[in-house]
Write a structure and sequence with these properties.
The chain is α/β, with parallel strands linked by helices. The protein is built from 14 helices and 13 strands. It folds into 2 domains: 228 residues, Rossmann fold; 154 residues, Rossmann fold. Helix 2 links the parallel strand 2 and strand 3. Helix 1 runs parallel beside helix 2 and helix 1 crosses helix 14. The longest helix has 18 residues. The two termini are 13 Å apart.
């Protein structure tokens, strides 16, 4: 059996797909994996990308394929050469939709694996989209090629896609919901996300299965280390992805420097694609640690990073700093976070509220809405489901 795994970069493939491939290898004799990188992730850390590529090739014994043209011809060449039994995608972007549509016409099942707590809008700015003109052009061109290959109205699909880039929303009549673009099956985190994906893209409830979020395994691992009395700032790629201007972000970090100075320990948990240069001033403080591993902390601070759900398995002291034009997504309210709008409010929570009162909900209660009380390895469940579908295909 052969599986093809596609994502935006080797970094994302190693993080989100390699564990699935490893799980297949444990259960399927002579399993083969082909990894394809779209080479489109913004601000990829060169060292992490290189190490990820090495890790993937060590497992698959063949080079990672780079396919960033997003053309029907190049994708078809890959499929003709490797003849996969199934395909895995790690999100549902316009180029994933192109892979789905091509695979559908070849009778190849595509499985979609949710790898973060998706929100309706990631708040791209118009200026950010213009700044990333080359990437935006590639994506809009992909939408056009998808329309031609699938024989849908080109003007409408491209218009719907541009509207989605700027607003993060899909209308009832959006062609982005076209059923021929859908994956064969999607693995999601909860009933909430079954409704979410149905409303956003029209996914059929019967075509979705619930799995434990991968990040919860990171939380379980972090809990094996002693709890750190301090604050963990979970970073996001706000500037890197064009959702916030660099000047605004630097002003925000100046406020966070003050918070760090008043904290016993201040840990900066970097996003895999975070530009570490933004955090150089923090390196001058002896109580600051900058790392990529998820820590076991007393207090967690972020904006709308999905890692806050992993943190909810560890602590009830969860702070969401809501930024201008970045409203807190609905799903985040379920874990009863403290939502603030300024550095002053953050300091008040750290220095006063958290020292005199307990969080309103216990861990079990915070996660009840998502049925996340039982943390289990999601990859075995994914393999079991896929094998069942493939045998019946």
């Amino acid at each position: 059996m052969k599986g093809l795994f596609f994502d935006a970069s080797a970094t994302m493939l190693a993080k989100n797909h390699l564990p699935i491939a490893v799980a297949f290898d444990k259960q399927v004799n002579d399993f083969q994996a082909v990894f394809v990188s779209g080479e489109i992730s913004s601000n990829v850390n060169i060292e992490i990308e290189k190490n990820s590529k090495t890790e993937l090739e060590k497992f698959s014994h063949i080079p990672v394929i780079k396919e960033g043209s997003f053309t029907v011809e190049e994708i078809s060449k890959i499929l003709n050469l490797h003849k996969p039994d199934f395909i895995f995608i790690g999100a549902y972007r316009i180029y994933d939709q192109l892979w789905c549509n091509i695979a559908l016409k070849r009778n190849i099942n595509v499985y979609n694996y949710q790898h973060g707590f998706e929100v309706n809008s990631v708040n791209y700015t118009f200026r950010g989209a213009l700044f990333k003109f080359k990437k935006s052009f590639r994506l809009i061109s992909t939408a056009f090629r998808l329309s031609k290959f699938s024989k849908v109205n080109s003007f409408k699909l491209v218009s719907d896609y541009v509207s989605y880039i700027l607003s993060g929303k899909t209308s009832e009549s959006s062609l982005l919901k076209h059923r021929s673009f859908h994956p064969f099956h999607t693995f999601v985190y909860s009933d909430f996300y079954k409704v979410f994906w149905h409303n956003k893209y029209g996914f059929d409830d019967s075509k979705m299965s619930i799995i434990t979020p991968h990040d919860f395994l990171l939380a379980a691992q972090a809990c094996k280390s002693p709890k750190i009395k301090g604050v963990c700032y979970i970073t996001q790629t706000l500037v890197e992805d064009g959702r916030m201007t660099e000047a605004s972000f630097k002003r925000l970090l100046k406020d966070y420097l003050l918070i760090a100075k008043q904290s016993e320990k201040f840990i900066i948990k970097l996003h895999p694609r975070a530009n570490i240069d933004y955090y150089k001033d923090f390196e001058l403080l002896s109580n600051v640690t900058i790392q990529r591993d998820f820590p076991n902390c007393e207090i967690y601070l972020t904006h709308y990073s999905s890692m806050i759900f992993a943190a909810a398995n560890i602590s009830g002291k969860l702070i969401l700093h809501e930024l201008p034009k970045h409203p807190t997504p609905e799903v985040f309210y379920s874990i009863a976070p403290y939502i603030v709008h300024s550095a002053g409010e953050i300091l008040d929570l750290i220095n006063q509220t958290f020292k005199t009162s307990k969080p309103s909900l216990k861990v079990k209660e915070r996660l009840d809405n998502f049925d996340f009380n039982k943390i289990e390895d999601p990859f075995g469940k994914i393999v079991e489901k896929v094998l069942t579908y493939q045998m019946n295909n």
